[in-house]
Q: What sequence folds into this?
């Protein structure tokens, strides 16, 4: 039994109510490094005088591809579409079309600007499915840190009026992957106060403004209030040495998702720091393989 499988089983033992995805292998996805990957850039929308860009990662293979949108981290105030390039390239080399996006961030823009841009990106991919040669029904989301929070919000409430969904085309997704996510901005804000992380406090305040707004954007709170309109399969990844994401916050997310009836997979990497998947390592290779398998089980073709 390899390390990854032990971690999955340990997670299930700790959380006996977890509903792990049924293993249904889909033919398109292959082992990492099967395909050569071609990269390009495009503008997916223009808003507030900005041109929002995406970096595409396309495997050199014939036919229609499954697609995934990558939402970068950076405390809602920094970072760009290149942040997740290690796992983006790895996923593309297994047969996924990866669409890594820029979006509006603090301090120039506040919540829910980023969430509106993510919904726009989903709609863009769906509307351009023929030209991009992707399957519009296969689209999923992966997000890192604050991007994990944004990806979960987009997955749970894809067509909300707050995110520009009223009268717009469908922005729902097949699944969500949340890597070391800031699932509850209010919880993490209080944590940052306790441990003296002034840089985190500034970024929280710059994007959300008030703690009340942070609490309204909390994924566990949203689930407990039954405000979600969709409940896609969710993969949550938690590093054990993560100084940015208190594990108690992640456990609250897992409980709330299970209590809501969601299909959940949880991976715990005990010796890894925050954002370890942004650099090449044996653990990152393990993570990419786990992400690929989760996509296959979740119907990402």
A:
């Amino acid at each position: 039994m390899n390390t990854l499988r032990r971690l999955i089983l340990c997670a299930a033992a700790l959380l006996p109510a977890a509903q792990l995805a049924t293993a249904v292998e889909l033919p398109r996805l292959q082992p990492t490094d099967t395909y050569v990957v071609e990269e390009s850039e495009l503008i997916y929308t223009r808003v507030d005088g900005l041109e929002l860009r995406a970096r595409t990662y396309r495997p050199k293979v014939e036919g229609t591809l499954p697609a995934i949108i990558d939402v970068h981290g950076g405390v809602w105030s920094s970072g760009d579409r290149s942040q997740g390039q290690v796992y983006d390239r790895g996923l593309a080399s297994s047969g996924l079309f990866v669409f890594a996006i820029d979006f509006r961030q603090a301090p120039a823009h506040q919540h829910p600007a980023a969430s509106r841009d993510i919904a726009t990106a989903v709609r863009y991919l769906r509307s351009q499915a023929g030209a991009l040669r992707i399957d519009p029904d296969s689209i999923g989301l992966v997000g890192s840190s604050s991007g994990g929070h944004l990806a979960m919000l987009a997955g749970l409430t894809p067509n909300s009026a707050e995110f520009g969904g009223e009268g717009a085309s469908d922005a729902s997704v097949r699944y969500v992957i949340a890597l070391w996510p800031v699932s509850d901005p209010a919880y993490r804000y209080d944590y940052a106060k306790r441990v003296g992380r002034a840089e985190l406090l500034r970024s929280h305040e710059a994007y959300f403004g008030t703690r009340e707004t942070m609490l309204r954007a909390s994924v566990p709170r949203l689930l407990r209030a039954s405000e979600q309109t969709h409940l896609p399969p969710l993969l949550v990844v938690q590093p054990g040495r993560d100084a940015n994401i208190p594990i108690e916050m992640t456990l609250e997310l897992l409980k709330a998702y299970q209590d809501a009836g969601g299909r959940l997979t949880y991976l715990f990497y005990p010796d890894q720091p925050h954002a370890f998947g942004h650099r090449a390592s044996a653990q990152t290779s393990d993570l990419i393989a786990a992400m690929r398998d989760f996509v296959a089980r979740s119907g990402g073709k």
Notes: Residues 282-297 form the longest helix (16 residues). The longest strand covers residues 37-47. The beta strands are 37-47, 50-59, 67-71, 97-101, 140-144, 176-179, 234-241, 264-273.
